[in-house]
Structure formats: C-alpha cells, structure tokens
Amino acid sequence: MQAAPSTRTGRRPGRPAARRTHTALAAGLLTAVLALSGCGAADDGSGASADKGAAAPARQDKLDAAAGDTKQRAGGSAAAKKPNPLTTAHVIRTASLSVEVKSAPKAAAAARATAEAAGGLVADEKTERVDDTHDSSHLVLRVPQGEYDRVLGDLSGTGKLLFRTSAAKDVTDQVVDVESRIATQRTSVARVRKLMDRADALTDVVTLEGELSNRQSELESLLAQQASLKDRTTLATITLDLSEPADDEDTDDEDGPGFLDAVGGGWHAFVTMVRWLAMAVGAAAPFLAVAAVVLVLWRLLRRRGGKAGPDGG
User: Fold this and answer.
1) Are 218 and 202 in contact (CB under 8 A)?
2) What is the rounded distance in angstroms from the CA atom of residue 171 to the CA atom of residue 229?
3) pTM of the prediction?
C-alpha cells in the first residue's frame, strides 16, 4: 500500500519540465516568426522607399512636362484669341502728290506701270497741253494697302517733288457696325418671309410684302456700304499731278546775260520807244491837221490883204 504514493510522487516532477520545454519551443518559434516578419517588413519598406525615391524624379518630370504643355496650350489659345491690330484694323489711306518732270506723258506711263506692277489699277487719267508748249497729267491710282508706302516712295522719286500730303482714317468701328446691322437685317428679312408663308388673309400678305420690300432695301443699302468700305480699306488712293517746268533756260540764267541778250534787250527798248512815239503822233494828228488848215487859211488871207492894199491906194 505504501508503494503507490511513492510512484505518484515521482511522476509529478516530470510534467512541469515537459511544459517548460513546450513553452520554450513555442516562444522560440514565435520569436523567429516575428523576426522574419520584421525583416520582411523592413525589406519591403526599404524597397518601397527606394522605388518611391527612384520614381519621384520621373513623376516630377512628367508633372513639369504636363504643366509646360498646359502653359503652352494656354499661351497659344490666348495668342489665337488676341486680335492682331494689323489684320483686324480697317484703315482708309489717301495721298496727294505733285511732281515736276521733264516729260509728263512719259512720267504718267511710268506711274501707271508702277501701280499695275503692285497689283493696283488706274482709276482716272487725264493728260492735257498747257499754253501749247507744256503737258500736264492727272492720275488717280488705287494700290493695295501693303504696297502703299512703296508705291508712294517710287512716285515721289520720279522728278522734283513740289508737295506731298497723306492721311489715314480708321473705320474699324464703322465696319463692325455695318456688319452687325447686316446680320440683324438678314434675320429680320427671314422672319418676315416666314410670316408671309404662314399668312392666309390677303391684307396680311400685302402688308408683309411692303414690310419685306422696305427691309430688303435697307439690307441692300447696308451691303453697298459694306462693299464701299471694303474697297476703300483694301485699296489705297493716290492722286498724282505731273507738270513740266515753265521754261528750259535754267542754264542761261545761271551763266548770266550775254551779248545776244543785250542786243535783244536794246532792240526791244528801241521798238518800244518807236511804238510810243507812233502812239504820240497818232494822238496829236488831229490837232496838227487843224493847226495846218488854220495856218494855210491865215497865209491865204494875208496874201489877199497885201494885194488889195496897193490897188486901193
């Protein structure tokens, strides 16, 4: 009966040792698992940070490139929306020139050729003879706006420039106003035509026809104004007057009067004096004639009186 208790007492000390062994193994496995997890997380973190560090410059470059493209597109759209004053402005240019040339017909032909070469035309031309000795020409030239300055310079250099005037008038507001009124008038005409299509009563049709005629007349007037503005803003107008010098004795004037000039002057003075003497004689002729008649009568009476005296004595 005493052997049994001794046997239980010997088994009890073995169970705690086995439990400690299992606990140590479990702790070791848990520590290993945690260590491996930490290393993997550290590796993943370092790899992710490395990938992020490598991808950051590339991503920044893409963002910068995208921003640059956006700015460029914005700048391009702004430039496209911003009106160019050289293309949108409507200006009427006119000029007047007076040039002294050696030969007016030749200079007129050269001016005509210059205008036609620039893409323009001659709107009016007139050449006439002055004092049966000199010619003069009057031309009205129409040239494109882009060739205006060049043609004006060429015409000014054809001879001696006497005077030159030029003017520019901005009619952009007028052009825009006419275009807007044309669009409104066309809409109005279309509206009246629709009403005519729907009208049934004769009085309505007659009234609408009169209204349509008035609005079409206004539209045609606006279209004529638009065509006139387009013509004057597309082609500049240059008025050119060509004249020849009054005399060609400039060289003689520069050298001074010579012997022939003195002879001519003396002869002119002699003829003038004779002419004045003749005029004086002509003016005194009636008086001289009366005086001569009186003198003849007086002599006759005197002779008769002398003869009668001795006979009577």
Assistant:
1) no
2) 8
3) 0.49
